[in-house]
Amino acid sequence: MSHEPYDIGPARPRLDALAKACGTELFSADSYPPGLLWAGARRCGVPHGILRGVDASAARALPGVHAVLTREDVPGSNRQGIVHKDMPVLCGTRVRHCGDPVALVVAESRDVLRKALALIHVDIEPRQALADMDAALAPDAPLIHESHGSNILLAAEIHKGNAEEALAQCDVILEETYFTPAQAHAFLETENGLARLDEDGILHLTVSTQAPFRDRFEIGHALGIEPWKIRVHSPFLGGGFGGKDGATVQCLLGLAALRLPGRTIKMWWDREESFLAGYKRHAARMHYRLGAMNDGTLRSLVCHLWYDTGAYAHLGGEIMELGMEHAAGPYRVDHMDCRGLCVYTNNPVAGAFRGFGVAQASLAFEGMMDRLADRLGRDRLDLRRQNALRRGDRNCAGVTLTSSVGLDECLRRVQGHELWTTRHAWKKDAPAFTRRGVGVAAVFNGMGYGRGLADNAIAKIELTPDGRFVIYSGVPDMGQGNASTFAQIAGEMLCQDAGRLEVIQPDTERSHPSGSASAGRTTYTFGQALIKACEMMTTKLVRRAALALMIDEPGGFTLVPGAVRHLPTGKELPLTVMGAMLPRDDRVCVAEYLMPVSREVPDTGKDFPLGFPHLIFPFAAHLVRVEIDELTGLVRVCDYLAATDGGRVLNPQNFHQQIEGAVAQGLGFALMEGFGTENARITTPDLSTYLIPTSLDLPDTQSVAVETLEHSGPFGMKGVGEVGMNGPLPAVASALSDALGAHIVRAPVTPAMILELLASRGAQA
Amino acid sequence: MSHEPYDIGPARPRLDALAKACGTELFSADSYPPGLLWAGARRCGVPHGILRGVDASAARALPGVHAVLTREDVPGSNRQGIVHKDMPVLCGTRVRHCGDPVALVVAESRDVLRKALALIHVDIEPRQALADMDAALAPDAPLIHESHGSNILLAAEIHKGNAEEALAQCDVILEETYFTPAQAHAFLETENGLARLDEDGILHLTVSTQAPFRDRFEIGHALGIEPWKIRVHSPFLGGGFGGKDGATVQCLLGLAALRLPGRTIKMWWDREESFLAGYKRHAARMHYRLGAMNDGTLRSLVCHLWYDTGAYAHLGGEIMELGMEHAAGPYRVDHMDCRGLCVYTNNPVAGAFRGFGVAQASLAFEGMMDRLADRLGRDRLDLRRQNALRRGDRNCAGVTLTSSVGLDECLRRVQGHELWTTRHAWKKDAPAFTRRGVGVAAVFNGMGYGRGLADNAIAKIELTPDGRFVIYSGVPDMGQGNASTFAQIAGEMLCQDAGRLEVIQPDTERSHPSGSASAGRTTYTFGQALIKACEMMTTKLVRRAALALMIDEPGGFTLVPGAVRHLPTGKELPLTVMGAMLPRDDRVCVAEYLMPVSREVPDTGKDFPLGFPHLIFPFAAHLVRVEIDELTGLVRVCDYLAATDGGRVLNPQNFHQQIEGAVAQGLGFALMEGFGTENARITTPDLSTYLIPTSLDLPDTQSVAVETLEHSGPFGMKGVGEVGMNGPLPAVASALSDALGAHIVRAPVTPAMILELLASRGAQA
GO molecular function terms here (chains A, B) (predicted)? Predict the structure, then answer.
């Protein structure tokens, strides 16, 4: 066993790397306990309609079918949803999108399941499909949720200063409308889980989920059982990105398990079902009017954002809020009017996705910055530096930035980088029939839940009887590496090597509620709780060692790998002895952390119900160099640079992996991933029609850490799970406009669009 | 269920009162699990000798005998002892007092056990019995413990100033020698317990013990098993007083259980065995030379203390140390030379006993004060007030009293009491053939373990799934009521009523090491730990409630009976819901407290190994009025007043009960309880020969609380378990000398001694 502490700062190999590389780490999808049954949902396949009946007689008669359940079999409220409980577990009278489930089948095998699902006959009277927000907002549009009384899920406003008046006084006023598409999370491991009702009436679930603790309440409410009679275990996830934040398989699995006590039920959506029934990024439309002075000072923004939440709310309102909170970008803008409408349609359900509403708005505010720079004849990067938020400024939502702000330093790093300084020469060197462009973007992303919803974590650490430390994580690891960082934090605090540290993935029975793995909050919030728990553990161990060594004051003790040492005498007590000696409850420390929230009351026209505003922001400046094939319209991303302020970096490897992954996903969003619908029916139902970038489509991203110190965070860090997603689209748009001389207002920028732009530019020229 | 919080201050009924009054509270002795076997020891019956052999063949042959074990059957070190491991579990080659065990029998029933014990033939070659300290200290005396190299267990010295020189300069020098006897604890529930070795190799014991956590180490060392393979449970004790602090039945029971795995073994000493084999108070001899000035100022004390520890050490050295630390009484004395000798003899083993060495010295230092007052023609109480320690003074051990000191106030209360102010008239009113006397005494008693041995407690409190609080006590309740006070402390801190509070008696598996129930430390040390645990619990519950109620700052919350309430909104979360909601480890809080120790290095000629000096002292002033029957020599205690400074009183009922019990035990010590030996053989083997006071022998003690504030203690308290024991003997001696005109130097003061004194006084007159 190595005796080098698994500490903070250097790049430490991830604790989960070997097991994942060898395939011994079991994901939820890898679990096939003996005797399991398979569950699957019959999806309605119709975007909007009245459900007249479900005929399951043929399916029920099929040998190997254990149960076919419909709405009448759901014992509870039948309602799911994180904030708005508007999504049925099984539809009874109404279907609102093609993926709505109308029956649940439990069968002996996957084959029988497929056959049984095909045998279910569903009788639906179709109604007008509201295929876009305009249709849904039309005065005579049918209501998708009658009880809600409107197709508007949330109408919200942010007012800062006097935007219209200030706009009128500006030297320059620019106006534009931007469009971003729905996007699929396209995680490796699609939605899945297992459930079993045990003899004590406890419902056990193992689910690929980002929010095991919240799941208990979702399931409990939907199925009418006490949340504490539900145990949810969340192993490592094969990706999440927001798509596993909220109920996917949970309630359906629970329902099946309640019906078949003692049996283990597995449900695993294939890619097509994941695309059909899973959550998507909200498609958005954004209308911007930006006013500035001739010297480049931003002065006023009036904007209107529309987010298409599809058939159900999920976190639609909160996602739009976050877009609005970031609407003016990471810049000083004294006046802003921002109005938002989050609209129900019959499109697939939109929900949480890395970049959470901000990835959309980033195209708009950065597009406006490019236009302004071009209009004023200014260097695009320079104009951004001039207006960049600094510590102490108030952002466009009215929040005074007392947390760390490293944006200008991010921009300065990009400005000094040779990818930027050599851009003119590089562009001139473009081969024949090739255009080159260099783009930049400055982005940010509020971290954590924001005000109104406690962003809290409870960490538990145990000294085992054999002298190791086990960290009970309360927040899942979707692959981003937080579990390993938790071990590093404990290793740092307790001065122990990796061999003595183990992280248990969330399990509502063993670990403690710590919110969801989302919002860039995971390591920040749980890490702070864990630091406190480790401090408690250290104090405890020192005091217990002092007792055992008959030293009556605890000064002079320290933890060393494998032992507690009394420095003045050199006496040591091995952790193995302490572990054996201490009673169970004295080997466990539990500590909590609550993220600070802004106590300013922003000047909003309308209070948001939850999650507004944010206090702490990671920042980033992205640079991209692209090459356009004038003959095919294909865009090649040649170079990518991301300078990110995530506070202090705990493990450079994990940090850069996060950035690289987000950039890849962002480049897909910019250039390839338009999740298509036509009349509310999906036109990209699988990975042959919905393309995501492969490693061949991507450059080696250069990631630069700009290490500010975020005092409130663990060892000075901020979360970088989200911010990297927001840069690629505006940076690519900027590079393309640099290459084409035409501004990009719509994503993804497909070869067809490029060819069209080239043609119109050619016509102009 | 009452909704009145079970809080601190008012007299609250003891939580254990009803169950004890109804007989439903099960003591260790009450436990008769099915299939139990009985164990008993064959005692040698010889004060000193060489063990030639043990013939157990007849006993082994007796039907119903499961095992007869001798020294060879003991797998470990065979040594017991808290500090000095000098006491064998079973003697092999040597016996050192009549109670030494030479064989252990396990039998089907108590009857068979008795018969089998009688059938064991023990072959002992007698050696000279060292029946008193002088014999043991004689140059040619045989060594009781050869490996120790001397019959002196501990020789110790305390030097403060320059005592001999100062003495020579005094106006008055007084000299006297005092004697106090051994005393039996005479608890209701004699030593007993049960043991069983389970299938996992865990040795389970239920024992009437004051130190369950230390017991594990005693048993482990003696029997060669890991302490953490031993689980000790300590139910309520039917009295302890120090006599159950240290191994009694533990190792013998453990030995029997190891031999007979899976069987439950019970051992219960009857009164005679308890007198024979149990611990006693040390008999002591004390030679004092006290010097004072004519104005009454004490100036120098030179004294020599001898403590007879009997055959084994137990805590003999530490007990003598405490006597020495208190040798000059609670007075300012600038110079002191105190030498102590703790001596091995072949008498019954002496050990811890309420008053722990100080009950002996109190006779001497208070006797000297009376003599000095008489010599100077001063009022006895007045002289004590003149010299009484005050906060900021250094005591005779050289410790600066920064803790609370209420002695003068105790004396003032006595001085103003009508039992004192009317004393002259009362004495004059004595009937014929009756003499009356009024005595006072001022005493103190160091609290806790003192320096060198961490005086620590670890409290655990749990919110149960059904919304109650369970306190896991780490220190036994011998009857003094600490368990109930723990509930009160938790009730106070958590604002809960008695119905929601439960105290679990110590169990090394469920509660945490908190030292022994002794040294007046129990409520002080564990109470402080419990307060911290309750603070943690409150913080935790408030934060969890804030989460559940979606309130993102924990301000404004409070606990109310049965719930957590958010005061600004009036929202409540019932504890039943919180209990159901929280995971196991989040319902438990563990906190530690370490008693402060003096950091002064006293000017001692020789460092004590452990437990010296003390920092915190309860004080008391006692007054007694006695009546002497001149014809019979019988002394009647007419009135008793105890003014006690124990810091703030947590529950007046418990406080006064402690004082009343100690006064009763002290009056027995003063007037009746001489534990007799003749040539090291007990002459008072049972309660017909060893008399203790009954309620008819005792007055109604008036107990007055002098409530200083001890800042370091829980809600300002100090422990009063010991101090009350120290007053009655010197107060009675003072009253008798007041009545007789002759000073008392020996206890107990029997009618024969009184008649003798009357006769000699009569002769003088």
Answer: iron ion binding; oxidoreductase activity
Contact between B318 and B611 under an 8 Å Cβ cutoff? The reply is yes
Mean pLDDT (chain B) is 95
pLDDT higher than 50, residue A765: no
In degrees and rounded to multiples of 5, residue A604 shows phi and psi of: -100, 145
Six-digit token string for A237? 């996830």
- pLDDT higher than threshold 60 for residue A343: yes
Asked if A547 lies within 8 A of B451 by C-beta distance, the reply is no
Q: Which of B626, B640, B598 is nearest to B724 (CA)?
A: B640
| Chain A environment of B511 (Cβ under 8 Å) | 583
Residue ranges of domains in chain A: 17-26+456-594, 31-127+191-268, 283-449+601-764
Reduced 3-state DSSP string for B30-98: HCCCCCCEEEEEEECCCCCEEEEEEECHHHHHCCCEEEEECHHHCCCCCEECCCCCCEECCCCCEECCC
CA distance A689 to A669: 15
Say if residue B606's pLDDT is above 70.
no
Residues contacting B440, CB < 8 A, separation 6+: B380, B381, B384, B411, B414, B420, B621, B622, B623, B624, B731, B734
DSSP structure string for B128-191: ----SHHHHHSTTPPPSSGGGTSSEEEEEEEEES-HHHHHHT-SEEEEEEEEE-BEE---SS-S
Q: Report the distance separating Cα A240 and Cα A476, nearest Å.
A: 10
Q: How confident is the model at residue B553 (pLDDT cuts 50, 70, 90)?
A: confident
Q: How far apart are CA A290 and CA A288, in angstroms?
A: 6
CA distance A378 to A591: 52
Fold of B17-26+456-594: Aldehyde Oxidoreductase; domain 4 (3.30.365)
What is the dotted CATH code of the domain comprising B33-127+191-268? 3.90.1170.50
Q: Report the C-alpha gap between A219 and B435 in whole angstroms.
A: 86
- Predicted pLDDT at B586: 92
Which CATH number describes the domain made up of B280-449+601-764?
3.30.365.10
> Is CATH 3.30.70.640 what the domain over A31-127+191-268 is classified as, yes or no?
no
Which pLDDT tens digit goes with each residue over B293-324?
A: 999 999 999 999 999 999 999 999 999 999 99
Please report the pLDDT score of residue B744 as a whole number: 97
Q: Chain B, 534-553: which have a CB under 8 Å from a chain A CB?
A: 540, 543, 546-547, 550-553
Q: Please check whether the two domains, A17-26+456-594 and A283-449+601-764, share a CATH topology.
A: yes
Q: Which of residues 431-470 of A touch B (CB under 8 A)?
A: 451-456, 458, 460
Terminal Cα-to-Cα distance of chain A (whole angstroms): 69
pLDDT of B765:
46
Cβ-defined contact of B552 to A585 (cutoff 8 Å): no
Across the interface, do B585 and A590 touch by the CB < 8 Å criterion?
yes
Q: What is the CATH number of domain A283-449+601-764?
A: 3.30.365.10
Question: Is the predicted pLDDT of residue B112 greater than 80, yes or no?
Answer: yes
pLDDT of residue B451: 86
